[in-house]
Queue: 2 jobs
Job 1
Amino acid sequence: MSYLEYRLQTVPTGLGKLLALNWAVILLVCAVSAVGFMMLYSVAGGDLSRWAQPQMQRFAMGLTAMFIIAMVPIWFWRNMSAMAYLLALALLVLVEFVGVTGMGAQRWIDLGFMRLQPSELMKITVVMLLAAYYDWLPIEKTSHPLWVLVPVFLILLPVMLVLRQPDLGTSILLLAGGGTIMFIAGVHWAYFATVIGSGVGLIVAVFQSRGTAWQLLEDYQYRRIDTFLDPSQDPLGAGYHITQAKIALGSGGWTGRGFMEGTQSRLNFLPEKHTDFIFTTLAEEFGFIGAFSLLILYALIIGFCVTSALSNKDRFASLLTFGIAATFFFFFAVNMAMVMGLAPVVGVPLPLVSYGGSAMLVLLCAFGLMQSAHVHRPRQG
Amino acid sequence: MKASPKDIETSHRKITRRGFVFAAAQLALVGVLGWRMRQLQLEQADEFRLLAEENRINMRLLPPARGMVFDRNGIILAENEQNYRVVMIREDAGDVDASLAALAQVIPLSAQDIAQARADVMKRSSFVPVTIADRLSWEDIARVSANAPALPGISADFGLSRHYPRGADFAHVLGYVGPVSDYDLSRIDDQDPLLQIPKFQIGKTGVENKLERGLRGRAGLRKIEVNALGRVMRELEREEGQPGDDVQLTINARLQNYVQARLGDESASAVVIDCESGDLVAIGSAPAFDPNLFVRGISVSDYRALTDNKYRPLANKAVQGTYPPGSTFKMVTALAAMEAGEIGHSDTVFCGGYTEVADNRFHCWKRGGHGNVNLRRALKESCDVYFYDIAQRVGIDKMAEMARLLGLGIHHNLPMSAVASGLAPDKAWKRRVRDADWRIGDTVNASIGQGYVLASPLQLAVMTARLATGRSITPRLVASRGGVAEPSGAGEPLGLNENNLRQIRRAMYDVSNDRRGTAYGSRVIAEDFRLAGKTGTTQVRRITPEERAAGITRNEDRKWEFRDHALFVAFAPFENPKYAIAVIVEHGGSGSRAAAPLARDIMLQALYDGTPPLDAYPSKDRNRISNQHDDLDLWDGVEARRPTRDQA
């Protein structure tokens, strides 16, 4: 019995697939998105049409896409991985020439009905490609140096392109997502130790290079690092964002100021209040209880994804689910750490909550892949 | 391809192992995030809540209306004027240039004004009102309002600014307000947040300065919510301030106006005091200046013109200026001698034109001498030798004591700038200040109000009032503050022998009413308002023996600044004194010719509370008096009065 047959025989078909979906994840995703609509409504000062409504439309679009993707067998997606990656890469190169820079960092292509950020697309295609790569690669070759270099190259190629935009946040997510798949696929510990060691070395180099001819980061990136390290040194200038974000968070207290009552965001003290810093508004208006609840919702999504991945015996499906969980996890973890002053402000939105069409669509597509993996998982007997 | 069940199992085991590590790491990170939330939101919540409030809430002061100042009859002396201005809000204007051009069609604006306004508007945030034109007339403002639809972003606005409707008349009494300066802030210990408002007006001199705290009032407070750009979102709370206390002065504005007009361009001063209450009904100092100039911010050239003027218009000569009182001091000398029992009113002294004291020759003003003179004649004809003689008998200390009893050489506490104490010298003073022994020649000089003796017109008026009443009349400038009446200055009896006082007053009556009196020319004809006075002519500089030999003793022959000061003090009516007056004309020549007519004219105006009938004057003066309304620059505007509660 071939493996292929084994899978085909046990996988549900037709409407049965709907019952086999991981409904817990779907409900959690909807819940988090609903929190997002509410917060977008609030930061717009009670204006539905400004951010909340477009966000809902994209959510509806994304949800439809999610269900369609979930219905398609996972091996189709495995076979599409390389194609998707190349497409995303091509778009990434394309925006270098025809892309429009919006809001300082990310570049997008206007598709008419929405603005597509290829870098967002890349987050998920890297994960797909790597999962497919390790599914293809014989397990005993996993830690072979040559076969380790290939995925490293596959990750670094888009990272470099995204860094050029420059979009530090997406670069980090790409590295983290790709790295996680390599780790789970079983690449030897020593490689990670080496990378972390050289990462520390790189950080030292980054700081050393400052002000020299071979300066590794842009000036504004250095300033962000500076203000991360000591936001109080420039409370009205570069440190303004993080200081105001912390004030908003802190002033929430246990229960917050109440829906639509957050003064920090309503009075525009908060920067990027509908995108990267939307969590601060939530924390201000709903307090610790609201903020912690959102964290629990995110953690539950991760938890269900990890459970699904662990119980999936198909290597590609399992790795893909882990990769999606990891990307999603780094998404919100970096954003929350950033607005709470635990990490530099690198420009990562809060997944499913921050305003932004590309991220919303890509995330829902990713959950579609995860659902496809879940539905089409190999079953015993 | 491949995928044997064995491989699947190997893969799954590995993935499971690494997956658990990964999940554990995630859980740890979620824990860190939760811990950080707890730290920020629960542990430091109070601190951050406070910071958020500071972000959000701005305090705006609401400046109170400054207290008004009225004269004794409720005529407005200082008020708060609506200062009309035109402001522009850029975001409402759209096209700033078009709006400004349209505005220039409505109110007069030079190209320079427009350029300046444009620069100001562009510099500020788009929602901040920027003043385009200030101190506009009501007509201009009305035109701007009427054309509002054609002037996008432009609106009429007003603030309050001090205004002195009586102009120069009250320049020295009221003083003026001006924008608070860094110098003011360094000098005064005042925590009032109002002073932090740029260009907030505070009293700089005079009553405005001395009664500043009451006049200023208390600031109101407006708590407003602002956004990150400072734009006002809404008002959270409003605490009304308290307007400044209104002040009613004892001055009679009409009389004050007459005094200033009558003093004219002379460097002169006149003080009129009510003998019953001590109320100062007029405090004139000339030349004066328009205090409104200072409120607006005086130009350098205007200010230089004031400081360079040798007549010192900025000085309040009535209270700041001290002069040798000259013969007006003779009452003090005489009263001291009589109270000490050194001389009776009928005792005579021989005047041969001079007297020799300690090898120095002291001249009487009359070279030939007066012959035998008693007190009455000595005062009437102002014989100097008589006083040289009695002063040596009574001694300087008793004279100084009498001077102080009559209000000379002591500080009178009035809310005006730099109120001078003058000087009633005695032996201890000379020892202390000059480190020298008192000499008999000093006494002789002091006996006729020369030498070290110094008095301000205010003090001379007080002295005259005390002589007229025998009571310790205390000058009073403020009748009420914030509706609360100030104590009267009627005072207690001085404890002087009434008979002695009567002799002095009688002699003063003769000065003005006896044919040989030095002020006979400036007498009052009206029986009920007869004047009792005393002239004074004080040397600014000793007449040198050469000048005396050359015959240059006449004032007219000397330069203005070397001429004698002319003084006159008087009270009236003689029988029942109502007012006392002191007049000094700096370098005016003789008291009888320069000061006495002024004093008489002012006194009659005060007694009649208006223009007296012509027959109150001697016939030779009637022609001049009948024309005085045209000759003098008298106030003829509408008198704005305090609104009374009954009418409201």
Job 2
Amino acid sequence: MIGLISYLVFFATVASILAIAVLGLNLQWGNTGLFNGGVVAFFGAGAYGTLILGSPALEGQLGGFELAYPLALTGGMVAAALLAWAVGALTLRLRHDYLAIATFGVAVAFESLMRNAEWLAGGAKGIRGFERPLRAALGDGFLYNLAFLGFVLCLLVAVYLFLERLVGSPFGRLLRAIREDEDAARSLGKRPARVRLVAFVTGSAIMGLAGGLYASFYAFVSPQDILPVLTFQIWAMLIVGGAGNNRGAIMGTVLIWGAWTGSGWALSRFAPIEAQLYTGSIQFVMIGAVIVGMLLWRPQGLFPERLVVSQSGRSN
Amino acid sequence: MPVTTKTRAGLTLGLALGLGALAPAAVAQDCTTKIGAVLPTSVDWGRPIAEVAQFAVDQVNEAGGAAGCKIEMVLRDTQVDPKVGVDAAKALVDLEGVKLLLGAVSSGVSMPILTSVTVPAGVPQFSCCSSSTAFTKLAEEGKTNGLWFRTFATTAVQSAVAAKVARDKGYKTVAVLYKNDDWGQDMARLIAADFAAVGVEVVANVAINDAQPSYRAEVTEALAAQPEALYLALYPVEGTSAVREWISLGGTQNMIVANSLKSDEFRDNVGLQYLGNTLGTDTASPRSDSADAFRTRYVERFGSEPNGPGLANSYDATMIALLAMEAAGPDASGADIAAAVPRVTDPAGTRVSADAAGFAAAKEVLAGGGTVMYDGGTGNVRFDANGDVSAPAVVWSFAEGGIDEVEYLSLDDVNGFIASLR
Amino acid sequence: MQNLVDGILTGSYISLAAIGLTLVMHILRFANFSHAELLSVGAYAALVFDKAFAAVFPIAATKLAPLSLTLALLAAIVVSMAFTGATAILIDRLVFRRVRDKGNELSMVFASFGMALVMRNLIALGFGLHSQLYSRDIAFAVILSRDPLILVKPDQVFVLGAALVLMAALHLVLTRTTFGFALRAVAENPALAQVNGVDLGRMIAATWVIAGMLAAAAGVFYGLSYQLIPIMGRDLVLPVFAATIVGGIGSVYGAVLGGFIVGIASNLALLVLPSGYSPAVPFLLILAVLILRPNGLFGEARA
């Protein structure tokens, strides 16, 4: 029983961290229509930024600042935001598929840089040695994980409320207006390019926050954490949950991450022993089938976007 | 109650030890102990590593199980994705209640498992193949709590022996192709230093990235340096692709390869006729009667030589883990199992072979309060304080039937040569 | 120079695959991430047919010197193209058509992601995770010129030639037949084409067949030059997408050019950057192209 609770706490922590990243993507895609194919670059910038700022010195690589945790985490977000600003300024005038492949390229380049530049981030062996905050007080065990889950949940709720307010605000309406018809928005004197950049940078900073939490939870990050599969996972969570709907984004995360890990658990438990060696491939088939099945069943996601009439519209 | 299994186990033991050995086998049948394994079974080189771990478990069960119970290995795929591997490890520890964990292969997966699952839970982790030097550093800082073990001899041995081969062959210039991961980057750095120390110049040092459709450009770059010989620190899939390209473009067939290419798949797909001047390096079993046990049993079971990245390492990791479990006795905690590892890798202990008979013999000795020295597939494995191993080395070449041994270097030879390089 | 020649030769199979992808992306209006898996399907199907033909007609298993190609494999390519075309239609019927009826563009993209996972791992289950080859013999390169030194492999020249023939055939079909006009009409404006009596369903099926056949050819050509592994689709999907986007979505000629550009770029890249960075290079190139031409070289702005 205690084992089950301990596992669920762990699962919920990772799922909540991923949910924060999915919320960031929802701001970019669901609300603004920006097809970010390089989610993992911004997630990674947050992860690496946090650990470089927060870790003790390691031989031959940048770091050793040992900043206090909130500062390091903020620093990771800033790193993600700066990267997003540079990338956005260059690429945001591209639309859809073109933007997706351009940002995807940024993510591949980011991973290459982290893998090869040892002076910067330790190369392929990554960054280790990060001291998890308050470890001395809480130890390493269940209590720590519980406390960390609480912290992550607080941030998840904060990000959720922030985005809900943002989306309901005039700025949120502006985002949707630009998504639906950019020319019309421009004719009203709005500046779509600037607004899109703001949304892109904000969403990316939220992804960076998720990356920072992820790296500090494992006290480790390496290039293997920032492979393109993460971009795919986060997108699948958003699409299955329902783009444009923050609750859907969170539900999609739990569902997809649950299917991703639960399929492995179920196979290890129920598949015959002769088949155990093949469960890795079977598990991928199951994951693919769940995603395809969900999209066949509810193509708009579990919670489709609710297009509400604005406050002023409703009062009339 | 599976009577046949019992009889077969009894027979094996009887052959190995005489009838007296039947006693421990008889008590072991009623219960099952789960151990966990997180290995990348969806990756080409990962699946055989998992298969050989299961093979080791089967042998232990043939000898009546460990710590009084049959062993069941619960296997999870890591997908080479740290998140997935860590989650799988956590589920094994929390939901299945495993007391020891085998895995992972990639350092980038093993490390977060170690820091966020096994160390906090006090579960010992035995990795076959994680090579990163970061583990040694972590252990030196006292952050592994003595729970980390790996049967992967440090890369220093491989690179030093390769330097010896290059010097003995009289190569003056060498091009290096290395896998662009933590192991390959370590190898490339060590090779450059060790080759320089024996007067061999590395004229090109080319990273080979995973999952690239073609390595034509990388090979062309190495070829342009016109080396006398080629050094390869690659795995079979990209190794095959790169070497076929290299040979077809007229590159030299003087090659030195790391143990990861000691693979039948690589030999067959490149072609033995092009591998006549290829020498490989590997860690080796010591010269003793029991040392061949792993190879012999493996050939019996799979019909081929145990050639492939990490196979012998994975077998040894599993065997040592289960020997330690046996030594720690029933209902031991993870920390007890970790603490029992020196009792089964004691140079002064009774030597036991790497098969069911050896495991049964070890049970006898351990039950009597003695210590054993496990003669594994990778050598007589001995862990230092940081969970690292050193081992004798061998130089080998590809041959029709498998692998021929060219030269054997004892542990003292290896250490002496490494010292001469510094 | 060598890098340039290599780039052109490696570009040929990327181009073939990119043509199919660009057609699908244009006519069905979604980025099909399972397209590269059709290359794997084609390559593995050819492996099976090749073995079968060689077993039935041993004479067909002799090599056509200096190529490492056999008559059996040549026949297998043709059969495999048909097989892969049929597979592509089947997948459309089973999955994509249903998602298309109910969902939007993005649902299609992620359904294709899911299908890619399923297809790749089914191949892995069927054929094993290790690499396989059509022929184990190594075809040696011939020296084309000594100064500067240029080496080419006969197989690669064959691949380039065959790819150009297939492209020319497609060009003729698209520009000289009623069917070609209909297909282009659907691509331009599906609604208008339907009003004019073009059967949309048939055109979509035709698109899949063309895409599947070209993908199969590209897959076999790739396998002939390198090796077959179940994850080859994963390794190839990015260069193929890159080629499509650089060329401009919907432009067949753009895809051809894009394929060669990506091939050349990845080969020239190592002259300026350490090889560790090579995966990033095609994408940096795309970034550069897109900053200059936001719709690709031959693409048109599309709502």
